[in-house]
């Protein structure tokens, strides 16, 4: 199961709407091993395409060095599909390389840049096997243990 | 002295979980051959045959001292002791 704050959920959806009809992409980083998606990091889609996304290689290195310095890992890797459903494509499955990440897909095919419901789904993709999981959105104050 | 190589999560199955390993070589291709000797199987995840010659896989990024090797000679990129090499799989995908 993926647990996300309303704030981060909204930020991912806003990014997907803004970049429509191109695919939007990014990560939500969190402390290594914690499974807590805390730090929203939108990325530029270097492919600038409605059917493909790729992080720019220089920005990818900067992102991973930054996460490394903070003892973080990518808890969520998200991208949008702009004309198809929010389900991993063959390319998505073949290129998925973060076995600990939740792969979030947002589809903007219905409303594009406009407000309105989007499909927002999350998956584990490990060794080519896709497993959909529940998404829980939390609201209000962060609880401190 | 040797060359430090940072290994991404997905390839740590080849390094007994180590986040970084050491290798030697005067070029990236020599380093990859050296890594293959100690971590069998890793080479095939980094390079592939393209039209009869060996090249880096399209969706694997390798950096030498923060430079993407594609801009500094690819597999022929020169290396020396003390260099830091980072391997990162591309974060990519698409609707098709």
Automatic annotation (TrEMBL), chain A:
Keywords: Hydrolase, Metal-binding, Metalloprotease, Protease, Zinc. InterPro entries: JAB_dom_prok, JAMM/MPN+_dom, MPN, VirAsm_ModProt. It holds the Pfam family Prok-JAB. Gene3D superfamilies: Cytidine Deaminase, domain 2 (3.40.140.10). Transmembrane segments: none annotated. Residues 2-129 form the MPN domain. It comes from the Bacteria. PANTHER family: CYSO-CYSTEINE PEPTIDASE. This is M67 family metallopeptidase. It comes from Nocardioides potassii.
Automatic annotation (TrEMBL), chain B:
This is MoaD/ThiS family protein. It comes from Nocardioides potassii. Pfam families: ThiS.
